[in-house]
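Loading example: each entry is read as two labelled lines plus one structure line.
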Amino acid sequence: MSLEIIESCVNCYACEPLCPNEAIYQAAPHFLIDPDKCTECLGDFDDAQCTSICPIEGAIVDELGVALNLPGSLTGISAEMLAKYQAAVEAAYQAALAAKAG
Amino acid sequence: MDLPVINSIPSSGEPAAGGGCASNSCGSTDDQLGHLPEHIRAKVHNHPCYSEQAHHYFARMHVAVAPACNIQCHYCNRKYDCSNESRPGVVSEVLTPQQAVKKVMAVAANIPQMTVLGIAGPGDPLANPERTFATFRELSEKAPDIKLCVSTNGLALPESVEELAKHNIDHVTITINCVDPDVGAQIYPWVFWKNERVMGREGAAILIEQQQKGLEMLTARGILVKVNSVMIPGVNDKHLAEVSKVVKSKGAFLHNVMPLIAEPEHGTFYGLMGQPSPTAEELQKLQDACSGDMNMMRHCRQCRADAVGLLGEDRGQEFTMDKIEDMEIDYPAAMVKRAEVHAEIAKELEEKDNKARAAKAELVSIHGMTPSAPATRPVLMAVSTKGGGVINEHFGHAHEFLVYEASGNGVRFIGHRKTTPYCEGGSSCGDGETALDETLRVLKGCEVVLSAKIGFEPWAPLEAAGIQPNGEHAMEPIEEAIAAVYEELRAAGKLDEKPNPQQKVA
């Protein structure tokens, strides 16, 4: 059994020093978990340490690929708000393109 | 009547005692610094973030070695990699301690005005103790003349105080947005504490307890503590006067109330839920309300966690790691050069202060002004400057205006207002009209704007908006020019007119 860090990781290092098994290591493009070392913190802590400090919802998944921190659970940002964010980013990008062209 | 120029160096002697905000530029008095030991007061005078006067002359930089964080704030998006935004918590690249040291040495050699190196993120420096302290350790050996400071949310502060003291870090900033867990629950969704993620009110209560404990431990050791608070309308705006009182009673020497930055494109909870930021007027009102209790700071530019240069400018792009690799630097010579430049600035500040004192004496002797003279109404004036404490920026090139209040009590700095330059100086001003509208909006409440030069085009719209353009004081020291204009207004009887209801007596 092992947890996995996926591409939404922002490389903040927060999880790395907390791992009781030293299973987390820096890699490109993002941190990874050595599946041979990860115990999901069983026997050491009630909650997996990486999952407990990771600020990015969905960046750490279990063996079935299920996110341990669900959308909205850490930031309070709902799916609806997220859609608004994506629209805002897209609008800013288009505006920058238009400014460049103009 | 008090000193006409409030933010000048007090006559007690060395410039050390005269750090702008730290002493009296923010409408406070020397006595409020009186509780600090002299050796600590001496630490403030050339720190651009602590001294309003120093920020015109001395530069600082942040190195982004601390990406991890142990809490979540609703105004922060942990996807911190933003190259085009200027706000706390964003950086272009995270550095290793070794890279950071190299960068600091390169910047300090190229910008001899640099006095301060801070670690402020993009996460929490004390949640990255190894990386943060490795950087401090090496820098204190290689550049002993550079002051080291750190900014933290406070959660890991009590356990770090010992180590901070060891590295001779004499400036710590704690961001304290509340002292009430019910308020905190609306700002902090979680904290990571003793190997667990603690949500909501319970987490906020832990954070508040650690912040207050850390504050007390630092001040007990004589380490200078500034408190930052983010003003979040409807959440903690009514509560911050209380915060100010509490942190002052525990020995914080400066309180910096900053406006919330929240835009949808930042991807923060507040940005996406439409949480409003305070207006310049709302911010000033709160700062004034808090200033009765302690020294308030008003010149903060809420800079990036990798900012480089004078406050209000960012020269980070000149010092990316690949550019630094190619630089040839004579480090010992750079340190000598810094010492020279710092001494020159100190001398300039002293001369400026002597002049201001002489001007005051003249003013008193000519007009017979006495403390019992009837109070004239205060007037807000905006200036554009590129630094150096003088009016040396064209109106159309200004990215920000510094706002001062002139009154019978002298001139005091109120804050800065960002804008889009009316004209970038090219042949075409593009959407200059929109930019001018923005400038008129941010200058609301000001009756005069002083610039090195003001073009014909914005002149009439400024006058129509009740803001008198003034280009007659180019290259003059800001406070002297404002005092002179105020005196002109007084002589012309304009201060007898009905005061603008938006303006507030200090």
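Residues 13 and 31 of chain A are 8 Å apart (CA to CA).
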